[in-house]
Give the backbone structure.
Amino acid sequence: MNVTFCGHAQITEREALQNWLQTVTQSLIEQGATTFYLGGYGAFDSLAAAVLREQKKRYPQVELVLVLAYLIIMGCPMRYLI
């Protein structure tokens, strides 16, 4: 099972959100999730990645994949490819 987390640049109630992410990710892993795709920008993405790095210690089969918002070619971000 593949799961994607992508969120906001800023978050409030960090501790409550962290607890929720721990509960949700553990449940997903126990249901068979093995690959988690994560955004690489902002507070939510960082928090989700941190929680999943901790989960990976307990569940080594978990794979974390960084999803980049923009393709960078020769040092220049390509926002749209036509």
The chain has one domain: 2-78. Residues 22 and 51 are 6 Å apart (CA to CA). Residues 2-78 form one domain.
